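SAMPLE LOG
Freezer: B-3
Tube label: C17
Construct: single chain, 508 aa
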Amino acid sequence: MNQTIIERLDQLAQTTPSAAWYDYNGEQSTYEDLKIQSDRVALYLGQELHLTEKSPILVFGALEAEMIVAFISAIKAGHAYIPVDSHTPRERLEQIISIAKPDLIIGMDELPIELDESMSFISKIELNEISQRSTNQVLDPAKAVTGNNNFYIIFTSGTTGVPKGVQISHDNLVSFTDWMFADFEIEGQQRFLAQAPYSFDLSVMDLYPALLSGSTLVPLEKEITNNFKQLFTTLPTLAVTVWVSTPSFVNICLMDQNFTQSNYPDLKTFLFCGEELQSSTAILLNQRFPESKVFNTYGPTEATVAITETRITSDITESYPRLPIGKVKKDTKVILVDEELHPVPAGEAGEIVIIGPSVSKGYLNNPEKTVAAFYEVDGVPAYRTGDLGKFEGELLFYQGRLDFQIKLHGYRIELEDIDHNIEQVSYVKAATVVPKLKEHKAQSLVAYVVAHPHSFEKDFQLTNAIKQELAPLIMDYMMPTKWIYVDHLPLTANGKVDRKGLMNEVNQ
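STRUCTURE (predicted):
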């Protein structure tokens, strides 16, 4: 019988107890520390709090080591965890809590909301205190999350302004991590860049391959990535061997002429996911890091991070102007279908449907959205991605979105989500947001707005007022950078807002 994720972690605590699983500015935590601390917290969760069986635990914070301790503790106690970034606006946090209904929140930072009396809260100080308490009690390993039970739940953008909670089971995650070890030749004692927030499923690509291989997570905080001078100074000190990020982030790093193999001699593998990798980026990376491997991957949150991969060599960049997203992993099948879910003829583009063991069971407490996107093919879970794809031999190529969902700087965004929230602003009568594209890739967001009568003399004054009212409602990466004011939004023949027409106008 294959070991569970927790069994594999516990075994590493025995075989490599002094190996560091986390290294922040030289402050390290070992695999033995992780086991002892998570065991103690899990005992506390199971014995002191009397949580509802299998109820999720929301964990609020950034890239602290304690976030991972909380994740593993929750799993050991039989509960899925919900990672929520500390930069999340108050209204969005309230929506997530309303949907997930957690009995417990573990917070690294002070919450921006008041909690219901029925909900427990553990602060970072309290978590550390609990993790340091000595005890003679032994944790029952049978309580840990296994099988088809939820391991984590990540909330993504929703079309109505309400986020959707993607449920990922233990076995979904095992399918993903087994593939990572098989196809990417990941060995132990690596140093993984941990830059993506844990609320973004790209983080799973560094988190669990690192933890299950006895490697080290090396966090890079948002405050540093937002300051280019500090970023370029900090990066060389991290000595990472495996780079996990969106293409957008590595493009920022490539602005530094010192981002080269000679200055990063330990860096051997680049893993990209979250958005389309441009050929120009891959070419420059291969020039700067000739001894490193560059991998392009693809997959939605609903299918556990990624399900295709290919190494991008100079031969690939010379052969394909638009890079392939790769070969489908062995335990998974991809079919391309039309609107009626019928397979399209060979060589034609169709909607990518993912079939296999890493496909989620659906959205938490949202049966309507689940039925619309998830179904079964010959008894195997399947997910309609809404992405267009085309096969050339074994290689799958991404062809864009079917709807108006986009990727911006690695974050998946529903344009209708932003529309909905802008229309909540008191100055706005109607709004539509479209992406500004470059090489098929969203670079920024443009908002078309029909405003209510107002007293502002200049458009920029109105824009500032709208943005101030909008900021608490959306994530910062969802904020449009250009605002265009119109008397009315153009409509299609069916009476719908002509978003495609506006996209063409913006991208002429």
